[in-house]
Design brief:
Blueprint (H helix, E strand, L loop, with lengths): L1 H23 L1 H26 L3 H25 L13 H4 L3 E2 L1 H8 L8 H16 L6 E2 H7 L43 E16 L10 E15 L4 E14 L10 E18 L2 E11 L4 E3 L2 E6 L5 E15 L4 E16 L17 E18 L2 E11 L4 E12 L4 E12 L11 E14 L1
Parallel strand pairs: 1-2
Antiparallel strand pairs: 3-4, 3-16, 4-5, 5-6, 6-7, 7-10, 8-9, 10-11, 11-12, 12-13, 13-14, 14-15, 15-16
């Protein structure tokens, strides 16, 4: 019993002492509990971050790596101008191979003495060292492992002696004197002349106003026309253009009991221009224009002759400027002539027609001075459709003459075409008509064959 009492007494004493010690160090135990709690919370946050990565942080790191790589390339580009000429320079290999830790960059950074080396090598080492410090996770290998792996090739240091076979020396070919080797040199003189021909035979329906200056009437008829062009252009300064137009058409009419047939289209016209280039497409121009007709002009059931060869005949000489037109991707071509100084000579062989064409009675000739404008254009509206127009105006400041010829051609096939011809005309030198005054008009549409070269 006493033993049990002693043991119980000893247990209570021990517990009491232990409790006193615990109370004595209670603050220390409290601090340790707080530290363990904080460590547990930090560990849980780390696990949460590893389980759920921050997308914004990943994007930021990626952008930073791109900016760093661009900075490396810019720095190397600034210090190396040899890259443009030395495309096989091996000093750049380390920048484009898988990222490897090389010792030279760290050795130079931690060395107390300056290190020798060229600018390119030092710049490459500096760029790699900066990348090692900022993104060590990109390093895939190191220089020690590369040295242990060895090289892909071994240099051959054994001297290679070529095997030379001696042969007989061939005698050199004899040198021929220069005069014994004839050389044919052909120098062709450039041809600045260009020739063009356009001919057609058309069957047509014709309309002529009653007061048409050359006579004629509306009917069905046929007309043949040819145009010859011979032009000179030295591609520098001089132009010399020559154009001869000939047109002659005949008609038959049941209502005409006087004439078996009579002309309804009659033209003989020459245009010559001599030009000296002034500036680009502008030329100083001297122009000669002469025109008449082939045969007599008649009307149905009327024996009177209204016009004839050299009745009238006009010769026009003008001095001025010409502009060469080339527009719409060369679909619109031609020329514009402005001749402020113009002399016009008119001759009428038949005295009975003198007054009809502005001459005094009994006179064969008329001299006029004035100004002239000529617009001559060809416009390819579409592949098969072409519009050729000629606007001619002359004034002596006492009388005026305006002619506007329009020919619209539809190319049906290579040698078959359809034409529409519209020809308004104003001439106040003749007799005034009661219905149309000084205005005249001719029109015809036709279908026929044509040939051009």
């Amino acid at each position: 019993m006493q033993k049990e009492k002693r043991e119980k007494c000893t247990f209570f004493v021990w517990n009491f002492v232990t409790l006193q010690q615990i109370m004595k160090y209670k603050y220390i135990f409290l601090v340790m509990a707080l530290v363990l709690t904080a460590v547990d919370v930090s560990a849980r946050k780390v696990l949460q971050k590893q389980a759920k990565p921050d997308t914004a942080l990943v994007v930021k790191n990626y952008i930073d790596s791109l900016a760093l790589l661009r900075q490396q390339l810019d720095s190397v580009k600034r210090v190396n101008q040899q890259l443009r000429t030395e495309s096989n320079d091996g000093r750049y290999y380390r920048l484009f191979a898988p990222l490897t830790f090389y010792h030279s960059g760290a050795r130079k950074a931690f060395s107390l003495t300056p290190q020798d080396g060229d600018e390119v090598t030092n710049a490459v080492d500096g760029a790699l060292l900066g990348l090692y410090m900022r993104r060590p996770d990109l390093v895939k290998n190191n220089e020690t492992n590369l040295q242990a792996a060895g090289y892909l090739r071994d240099d051959v240091y054994t001297e290679v002696k070529p095997q030379v076979e001696l042969v007989e020396k061939v005698a050199p070919a004899p040198e021929l004197p220069a005069e014994s080797a004839p050389v044919d040199v052909v120098v062709e003189k450039p041809n600045f002349w260009k020739f063009k021909f356009d001919g057609s035979l058309q069957f047509l329906q014709n309309y002529v106003s009653d007061n048409w200056h050359k006579g004629g009437e509306s009917n069905y008829s046929a007309v043949a026309s040819t145009v010859f062009e011979l032009n000179y252009n030295d591609q520098e300064r001089v132009l010399f253009d020559n154009k001869l137009e000939m047109k002659l058409g005949f008609q038959t009419s049941r209502s005409d009991t006087v004439h078996k047939f009579k002309p309804n289209n009659d033209l003989l016209r020459y245009t010559g221009k001599l030009g000296l280039q002034a500036h680009k497409k502008w030329y100083y121009t001297l122009q000669v224009l002469a025109y008449t007709q082939f045969t007599r002009g008649l009307k149905s059931n009327d024996e009177k002759v209204y016009s004839d060869f050299m009745s009238p005949f006009d010769l026009n000489l003008g001095l001025g400027m010409e502009y060469k037109v080339e527009a719409l991707n060369k679909r619109l071509t031609g020329s514009l002539n402005f001749l402020p100084l113009t002399y016009n000579f008119r001759y009428v062989d038949r005295l009975a027609l003198s007054t009809k064409y502005g001459l005094k009675e009994g006179k064969h000739t008329l001299h006029d001075f004035g100004s002239q404008v000529t617009v001559d254009l060809a416009w390819k509206l579409a592949d098969p459709i072409t519009w050729k127009t000629r606007l001619y105006g002359f004034t002596s400041y006492k009388r005026g003459l305006v002619e506007w010829e329009n020919l619209i051609t539809l190319q049906v096939s290579q040698h078959i075409s359809a034409n529409l011809f519209l020809y308004p005309r104003f001439d106040d030198s003749g007799t005034r008509d009661d219905d149309m005054g000084y205005f005249q008009f001719q029109e015809y549409s036709s279908l026929g064959i044509n040939y051009t070269f």
